[in-house]
Design a protein that fits this description.
The chain is of the alpha/beta class. It folds into three domains: about 45 residues, no CATH class; about 120 residues, Response regulator (Rossmann fold); about 130 residues, Rossmann fold, CATH 3.40.50.2300. About 40% of the residues lie in helices and about 15% in strands. The chain has twelve helices and twelve strands. A six-stranded parallel beta sheet has the order 2-1-3-4-5-11, sandwiched between helices. Strands 7-6-8-9-10-12 form a six-stranded mixed beta sheet, with helices on both faces. The protein is elongated. This is LacI family transcriptional regulator. InterPro entries: HTH_LacI, LacI/GalR-like_sensor, Lambda_DNA-bd_dom_sf, Peripla_BP_I. It holds the Pfam family LacI.
């Protein structure tokens, strides 16, 4: 029986020797961080590396530079469609810049969020991207004081680097659309009071009502969670038979809330788009595929993700807070009052 030959990995030195170049020249030719050199020497080195089956150890290389080219992303939960979409965009944007993104979930508890952040930092990530959303969150302040590179997405505390949609403008666009259709009896279902998204979208809705000279019915300004069940409960409260008058239109501060309102409307024999107009927020893919397609405010997640990566990898951005313009997407769920 022939002796087994151990599978010895090909090293950078092997590639350099086989290519007839120095170790540093081989390293530069195989460095994937920038635009690859098109010189004949670099092309030869890459061809030899491929023939030998060389695989660059990027992790070890980056550790020598004090980097891992890895970014940690912290989200409340990946069962939330917007959070999942946001992470996918961050992952794509990171990859295009030569980084790898890993995700951790934290729920809504600040202590759990801090533990999740520390877990990511223990993995020696080069920076943190936070999609968590509490206004009273001390984590960004802690990261600033500890000089940890970070950026907030879909939210801002007004201090840490942030990339988000302009939620106040989005709330304004949603309610302005209903007002332009002729509605005045408009209810608003916002997210939790501890979220910057919920408070900003409500502020935009109130501004639109005020500009139109419509008196706000405070009983129709409801704060809820961001799930479908929360939207259903809020819809039941607004549409219960004993209440009079009832709203002819509802702005729900995310699409899950809007879908919950749709379910409540059905129980009260109301037809969305006819008896009751409805506008959601975020324009998740399901919105256009509902039995009554949902009018929604679209947020440019791709731009937000790209900017968040820039805020971390380019120190010249400083403490920039960048807001991107949302867009109203009208569909069948919003119609004129009967």
């Amino acid at each position: 029986m022939e002796p087994t030959v151990p599978n010895v990995p090909v090293t950078l030195k092997d590639v350099a020797v086989a290519s007839g170049v120095s170790l540093s020249t081989a390293s530069r030719a195989l460095d994937e961080r920038g635009t690859p050199s098109q010189s004949a020497t670099a092309e030869r080195v890459r061809k030899v590396a491929e023939e030998l089956g060389y695989r660059r150890n990027a992790f070890a290389s980056n550790l020598r530079r004090g980097q891992t080219r890895t970014l940690g992303v912290l989200v409340p939960r990946l069962s939330d469609t917007v959070m999942a979409l946001m992470f996918e965009e961050i992952e794509r944007a990171a990859s295009s810049r030569g980084y790898f993104a890993i995700v951790a979930t934290s729920g809504d508890d600040p202590n759990d969020e801090r533990k999740a952040a520390e877990t990511l930092l223990d993995r020696s990530v080069d920076g943190l991207i936070l999609a968590t959303s509490r206004i009273d969150d001390d984590l960004p302040k802690y990261l600033r004081e500890a000089s940890v590179s970070h950026a907030l997405v879909l939210r801002t505390d007004g201090v840490s680097p942030s990339a988000l949609g302009d939620d106040e403008v989005g709330g304004y666009l949603a309610v302005r659309h209903l007002l332009d259709l002729g509605h005045e009896d408009i209810a608003v279902v916002t997210g939790p009071a501890f979220t910057s998204t919920g408070t900003a979208r409500l502020a935009g809705a109130r501004r639109a009502l005020s500009e139109a000279g419509v008196t706000v019915n405070e009983q129709w300004m409801l704060s809820a969670g961001y799930g479908i069940r929360s939207g259903f409960d809020a819809g039941q409260e607004l549409l219960k038979k004993k209440s009079s008058p009832k709203p002819t239109a509802i702005f729900a501060a995310n699409d899950n809330l809007a879908m919950g309102v749709m379910a409540a409307a059905k129980e009260h024999d109301l037809v969305i788009g006819d008896n009751l107009s409805l506008v959601g927020y975020n324009d998740i893919p399901q919105s256009a595929l509902l039995p009554t397609p949902l009018t929604s405010v679209r947020v440019p997640l791709e731009q937000i993700a790209s900017k968040a990566i820039d805020l971390i990898v380019d120190p010249s951005n400083g403490q920039e807070v960048r807001k991107f313009m949302p867009t109203l997407i009208p569909r069948a769920s919003s119609g004129k009052p009967q």
